[in-house]
């Protein structure tokens, strides 16, 4: 029993490290943001480990990336967004789809996560543009659309990568 807990802890830690490394080294600049694989890996973590452990992996992986790369002031927002995405995946994948990992459901999970991330970023930047920049709501919303180009790119990567990578990670992490 102790070795199973140790193995799980090692798997979760390595997976969080994989998120950090993938965002650090596999990213494409896109305006003020960049396109990366981190969100796709968060979705896969939820599908493999469940929503709670997936949220833990997302929090550690994306949170530490932010801290190590000069985004420490915004780390709480990254963590909040990750927790919301994981919660939405919990509701959709675990509750609605009963954790059935047939490929159609895996694709649905990727699309839901991508759309959730776009909505969260749009709302976040609209609030920032309204509150901090004192823009009128319509101007704030338009400025938000311009700002989240990288989020759209990352969402496309998520939709494509989740169904491709999920079976690979599932096979690697299966216990014999």
UniProtKB/TrEMBL annotation:
PANTHER family: UPF0397 PROTEIN BC_2624-RELATED, UPF0397 PROTEIN SPR0429. It comes from Streptococcus vestibularis ATCC 49124. The keyword Protein biosynthesis does not apply. It comes from the Bacteria. The chain crosses the membrane at residues 71-93, 105-128, 148-169. Keywords: Membrane, Transmembrane, Transmembrane helix. This is Rod shape-determining protein MreD. Pfam families: ECF-ribofla_trS.
């Amino acid at each position: 029993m102790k070795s199973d807990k140790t193995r799980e802890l090692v798997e979760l830690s390595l997976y969080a490290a994989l998120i950090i490394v993938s965002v650090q080294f596999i990213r494409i600049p896109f305006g003020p943001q960049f396109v990366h694989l981190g969100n796709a890996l968060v979705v896969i973590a939820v599908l493999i480990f469940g929503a709670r452990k997936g949220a833990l992996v997302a929090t550690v992986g994306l949170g530490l990336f932010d801290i190590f790369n000069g985004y420490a002031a915004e780390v709480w927002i990254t963590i909040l967004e990750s927790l919301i995405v994981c919660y939405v995946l919990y509701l959709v994948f675990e509750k609605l789809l009963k954790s059935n990992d047939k490929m159609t459901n895996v694709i649905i999970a990727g699309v839901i996560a991508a759309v959730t991330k776009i909505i969260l970023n749009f709302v976040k930047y609209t609030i920032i543009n309204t509150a901090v920049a004192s823009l009128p709501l319509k101007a704030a919303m338009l400025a938000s659309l311009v700002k989240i180009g990288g989020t759209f790119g990352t969402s496309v990567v998520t939709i494509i990568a989740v169904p491709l990578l999920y079976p690979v990670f599932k096979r690697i992490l299966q216990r014999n």
